Amino acid sequence: MSARSGSFGSIALGGLVALALASAPSIAQAASTVLLVLDQKDRSLAIVDPATLKVVSRVEVGEDPHEVVASADGKLAYISNYGSLMTPQHTLSIVDLTTAKTLPPVDLGGIIAPHGMCLVGGRVYFTAEGSKLVGRYDPATARVDMVVGIGQDRTHMLIVDEDGRRIFTSNVNSNTISVLQRDNKNSDNRWLESVMFSNGDVSGWTETTIPVGKGPEGFDVSPDGKELWAANTHDGTVSIIDVVSLKVAQVVDVRMKSANRLKFTPDGRQVLISDLGNGELVVVDATSRQESKRLSLGHGAGGILMAPDGSRAYVAVSRDDYIAVIDLKTWSVIGRIVTGQWPDGMAWAVRK
Question: CA-CA distance, 152 to 232, in Å (whole number)?
């Protein structure tokens, strides 16, 4: 795998600037880098200054927001309105980050329960649990230009290669990881995507389904592209997949109540796993596969976001309504970001 994209994409933080205390829109305009945090129960997006750890603006973003990605120029945020399978939603919210205002949402029609998100090549990839598929929205044409059926239950999170030719998904209720790979022999990508959109044809893609532990949710691909680690929510284990052979190479018991999200540090040496059941953050050495640290953060640890320079990790302590800021050298909590109710999905927005 080449450079990683989407949830694990490489983003240059640049210099973080202190933000002047002004109105919300002008604060958003002045920021070169902002942290985006979704508060699920408040149905809002919090825009945070990472230098001061303060919320500088808040925007309403629709029902049950779960995951967020930002455009490459840092001007727009795209958000999945989920609703699970009980009250499934069918929209993607869009926020103008320069004005801190919500734009008209993307109505997905019969595509329901969108959740995981990844932005590659200017287009927004998303999972849709209720429709058992991966879709792609093109902001340039304002349409969903690709849908690929997965055929697995609760396709939840996803990672997309930077060239869009390989997609990884976690399928919670099927206890699998899916790997979609595009046929390299077909060079006419636009034609292929048009066919898939118009009649559901998935020719040109191959899908490999890999059985893992019970309830895989959060997962990540190592920075060198050689391994995929999947956190299995229901049995407290991590399945380690060899990305070349597409087979499980090892299963590690991390002794967790409800392993929720999993992220490699940017240098690939450590793996962070959050526990939604008891609020712990478990750190595993990527080479030895042994636990190196266990932190108690509060109640209900969820989303994890890395500072691209490798200095910090941001962990949503959902039930306690804050983001814990972890120093990755000392493995200590060095700050808190008080957000709204039930923070979870996070992303960086970098103004170009």
Answer: 16
**CA-closest candidate to residue 117, choices 126, 130, 106:** 126
Which of helix, strand or coil describes residue 246? Answer: coil
Instruction: Please classify residue 92 by burial: count the beta carbons closer than 10 Å to its beta carbon, then call 0-12 exposed, 13-18 middle and 19+ buried.
Output: buried
Sign of CA dihedral 172, 168, 302, 270: positive
Task: Report angle CA 192, 158, 189 to the nearest 5 degrees.
Answer: 15
Residue 167 lies in a domain: yes
Residue with tokens 């699970």: 84
Q: What is the DSSP string of 81-145?
A: E--TTTS---EEEEEETTTTEEEEEEE-TT---EEEEEEETTEEEEEEGGGTEEEEEETTTTEEE
The residues, ordered by sequence, that sit 6+ positions from 300 with a Cβ below 8 Å of its Cβ are: 276, 277, 279, 317, 318, 319, 320
Q: Does the global pTM surpass 0.85?
A: yes
Contacts of 305 (CB under 8 A, 6+ apart): 35, 263, 313, 314, 346, 347, 348
Sheet with 270-275: list strands edge to edge: 259-264, 270-275, 280-285, 291-296
Task: Write down the pLDDT at residue 128.
Answer: 98
Is 1 contained in some domain? no
187 CB-near residues (< 8 Å, 6+ apart): none
* Structural domains in the chain (count): 1
Q: Which residue has the tokens 């990844």?
A: 118
CA-to-CA distance for 80 and 62, rounded, in angstroms? 9
Give the chain's residues under pLDDT 50. 1-31, 185-195, 197-202
Is 219 contained in some domain? yes
CATH code of residue 110: 2.130.10.10
Place of tokens 């040496």: 269
**What pLDDT shows up at residue 203?**
54
Q: Write b or e for each residue in 104-135: b if 16 or more Cβ atoms lie within 10 A of its Cβ, otherwise e.
A: ebbebeebbbbbbbbbbeebbbbbbbbbbbbb
Closest CA to 177 of 148, 200, 155, 147: 155
User: Can you name the residues that pair with 130 across neighbouring β-strands?
Assistant: none
